[in-house]
């Protein structure tokens, strides 16, 4: 991913119409986490304006994970840095995946909260995903820097936090924590 794509889509003060999902996989061995460099990268959604069927980034990601055939006798941690929290349907798909793959844990760091669904069901989807064992949090400057170093083609430039990043992250974190505490849709 290039620097501009990262900044345009992960700046938590903007409202991009695309979703990018950056990922990295680690094999867990006791207390050690061994990065699997062949399983890191990014995907993006396919919107209405593109040829073929629209598809959310999370669903592309699930297709990739399934194609890897990760050894069920090993334990893995998937870390996702995503520009929007999953919608209800994607959260349900991720929940089902986790329930079917107990050897995999999922940690989601989101830049902002998806709120297009006015019914509030996206909130119940996030709660179900958390109940299935996924960690879900809002990205801080440190998380953005980790994504920058891991996935972005930054050409040796350091991550530059934008003005208002920490304040907006804190606001979104409090909003997400409130969503995850409520138990009904």
Percent in helix: 25-40%
**Total helical segments:** 6
Rg on CA atoms, Å? 16 Å
The low-pLDDT segments are: none
* Mean pLDDT metric: 92
Essential attributes:
single chain, about 180 residues, alpha/beta, 5-stranded mixed sheet, 6 helices, 5 strands, globular
Task: Give the arrangement of secondary structure elements.
Blueprint: H1 3-10, E1 20-29, E2 32-44, H2 57-68, E3 75-82, H3 88-100, E4 104-110, H4 121-131, E5 135-138, H5 141-151, H6 165-181
Parallel strand pairs: 3-4, 4-5
Antiparallel strand pairs: 1-2, 1-3
Summarize the structure.
Helix content is 39%, strand content 23%.
Outline the structure in words.
This protein is an alpha/beta fold. It has six helices and five strands, in the order αββαβαβαβαα. The chain has a five-stranded mixed β-sheet with strand order 2-1-3-4-5, sandwiched between helices. Helix 3 runs parallel beside helix 4 (about 120-130). The protein is globular. It starts with a helix and ends with a helix.
């Amino acid at each position: 991913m290039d620097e501009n794509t990262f900044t345009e889509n992960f700046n938590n003060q903007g409202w991009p119409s695309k979703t990018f999902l950056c990922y990295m996989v680690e094999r867990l061995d006791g207390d050690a986490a061994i990065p699997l460099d062949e399983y890191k990268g990014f995907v993006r959604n396919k919107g209405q304006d593109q040829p073929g069927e629209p598809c959310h980034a999370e669903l592309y990601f699930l297709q990739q994970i399934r194609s890897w055939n990760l050894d069920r006798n090993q334990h893995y941690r998937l870390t996702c840095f995503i520009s929007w929290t999953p919608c209800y349907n994607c959260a349900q798909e991720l929940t089902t995946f986790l329930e079917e793959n107990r050897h995999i844990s999922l940690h989601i760091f989101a830049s902002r909260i998806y709120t297009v669904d006015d019914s509030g069901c996206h909130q119940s989807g996030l709660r179900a995903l958390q109940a299935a064992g996924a960690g879900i949090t809002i990205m801080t400057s440190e998380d953005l820097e980790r994504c920058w170093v891991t996935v972005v083609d930054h050409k040796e430039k350091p991550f530059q936090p934008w003005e208002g990043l920490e304040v907006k992250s804190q606001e979104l974190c409090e909003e997400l924590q409130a969503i995850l505490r409520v138990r009904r849709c």
